[in-house]
Amino acid sequence: MAEQDLSRFLSKISQLQSLAERVQQDSTSRDQLAACADHNQVVRLAQSWGFDIGRRWGERDHGPGGEANLLATPCPPRGEESTRVLVSAETWTLRLIASNDYRSPSGEWMDQSDHEWVLVLRGSACVALQNPDRIVDLSPGDHLLLPPHQRHRVDRTDPDPGTLWLALHWDAA
Fold first, then answer.
1. In this predicted structure, what is the pLDDT of residue 6?
2. Looking at residue 166, which CATH number applies to its domain?
3. How far is the C-alpha of 29 from the C-alpha of 41, rounded, in Å?
4. 111 strand-pairing partners
5. pLDDT number for residue 55
6. What share of the chain is helix, strand, coil (3-state, %, to 5)?
7. Tell me, what's the pLDDT at 114?
């Protein structure tokens, strides 16, 4: 492990220990933490208390790198997604999608006539599928194949620095 990674890891452990101490000593903080439903809510609450615990192991800070560095893609405004076509041909398109604390509009399902394969590069996401009904949690390196007309929706993505996806779409024929 590089010295910079070790320092960041030890700093996160220290912040988590301080956070745990606060929660053990303050019942109001404990109740607020207990009310969190997912990782993103815990991270936001901890940030409001001055703790930076959101970065997962292996995630790096990415400064400006131009369009050649996909991981340097900026995060869109909270609650939104941005999409950029990286390359395409007659029957397929490869897109880069950046999501910031995004979820599909309530009650809306995507139903596409093409195949879609998604890969999470940064952050995490939760995708709901219909027929059969199931929830898929995705972290960096996880991928999901959606056949044509597989109804799906995004239930959540990470807040800033957000979730970064590759999405490959190709014709069903």
1. 81
2. 2.60.120.10
3. 13
4. none
5. 61
6. 25, 30, 45
7. 95
For tokens 């997962």, what's the residue? Answer: 56
- Please indicate, yes or no, whether residues 160 and 115 belong to a single structural domain of this protein: yes
Q: Judging by DSSP bridges, how do beta strands 163-170 and 115-122 pair with one another?
A: antiparallel
Amino acid 56: pLDDT: 57
Q: Which two tokens stand for residue 72?
A: 């340097």
Whether the link from the prior residue into 161 is cis, omega within 30° of 0, is yes
Confirm whether pTM is higher than 0.85: no
Pair 26, 82 in one domain:
no
How far, in Å, CA of 100 to CA of 123, rounded? 10
Same domain, yes or no: 126 and 75 = yes
Do 74 and 153 fall within a single domain?
Answer: yes
The residue segments making up the domain with residue 19 are 3-48
Q: Is 130 helix (H, G, I), strand (E, B) or coil?
A: coil
Residue type at position 54: G
- Which residue is it, tokens 């941005």? 82
Give the pairing type, strands 80-88 and 152-157.
unpaired
Could you tell me which residues are beta bridge partners of residue 144? 118
Structural domains in the chain (count): 2
Name residue 102's amino acid: Y
Instruction: Reduce the DSSP state of residue 173 to 3 states and report it.
Output: coil
